[in-house]
What does this fold into?
Amino acid sequence: MTPATQEATLPLSGRILQWRAEDGAWRSLASREDEADVEFQPWTGAAGVLIQADGDVWHRPSWLVAWSELPESGRVEVLRTDGQVLELTVIGRVWACEWIGQGEPITVQYDDGFPQTVRIDRPDYL
It folds into this structure.
């Protein structure tokens, strides 16, 4: 990590977000071991969401983590199915949140746009 790289580590999952302000690039690492393999990507303001879980979230509670880029306005809200608003970690122009759950979907609201429902796909063998 260079001095110009900011980072935040999420406490449950250990996922690391890194942001380079000088070129507006970011990356998300599952662990420190990924630094040599995961390239920085330019920030685009895209409204997609990535989500990951630890283990079999359909049979036991586990941590889940979601992350993406902030929109130009910087406004994003993430809600669980029970209406709980999840706390976001923001570094540069990217965000992430994590929670304990059992595979339930989340709703991601960017600005005043149409909400996105995001879920972990259940494997066919379960």
User: Anything to note?
Assistant: The chain has one domain: 5-118. The chain has a mean pLDDT of 88. The CA atoms of residues 90 and 98 lie 12 Å apart. The domain at 5-118 is CATH 2.60.40 (Immunoglobulin-like).
